[in-house]
Every structure is written in structure tokens, then in C-alpha cells.
Amino acid sequence: MILEILPYELTVCQPTAITQNTLSGEFFFIGKTDCELSLVCETKSVPADCKAREDGWRAFRIKGQLDFSLTGILSPIAALLAEAKIGIFAVSTYDTDYVLVKAENFTAAMDLLSKNGYSISA
Predict the structure, then answer these.
(1) 95 bridge partner residues
(2) C-alpha dist (Å) from residue 60 to 12, 39, 89, 99, 119
(3) Is 2-121 CATH 3.30.2130.10?
(4) What's the pLDDT tens digit per position in 62-108?
(5) What's the pLDDT score for residue 94?
(6) Which of 9, 31, 52, 106 is disulfide-compatible with 43, CB 3.0–4.6 A?
């Protein structure tokens, strides 16, 4: 399985609103529930008005299009990183999964995954 490193730093935040400007970056993921509005985006594109924000994330995606019938794709990655005490923030799209890791742990995470059979692509 190939893990493709994304080339930018990311932020997880709670904007007060989503505007057209919010959606101008190359990468953003919006989650809205009855309790909150969350945004994952490039750090340079974080909206000015946020209730909370957590900077310093890096990410990789599972390369390729994952069929919905596939199971257990994210679980072994999360388990390996959890054993090493590396926390993750995962988001999924229609095609694939994205795993965010704090920047200070990112190199260790990539090394660990590489040593456990994952191919790393930049």
C-alpha cells in the first residue's frame, strides 16, 4: 500500500462560518454536525474568525481509490501509530482516507510505517 505525503502544513479549527474564501485553498475538509462546525485546511488558509484552532499537523493519504467494500485499511495504520504513542486525526473522502499527525511526530510516523511494509511517496 502506498502512502502519499501531502506537501503542506494543516490546521484543524472551528470557524464561526464557512465563506467562499474559506474554500479557496488546495485542501480543505468540512465537518458539520448538530453540535459543531469543523474545518481541516492548509494553515495559510485558516479563516480569521475561529472559536478554536490547532496548528501543526502534517498528513498523508492512502494512494488510490478505495472501494467501499474494502475493510481494515485504516485500522492497521492507526494501531501501529497508537502503539508508538503517536496520535492521529483521520478524515475520509469518497475515494480514500487521510491521516493527520502532529508535525513533531510526522517523521517518526513515516519511518515506522515504512518499516512495517508501507511504501511512502512524496
Answers:
(1) none
(2) 15, 17, 11, 6, 12
(3) yes
(4) 886 544 455 557 889 999 999 999 999 999 888 888 999 999 999 99
(5) 83
(6) 9
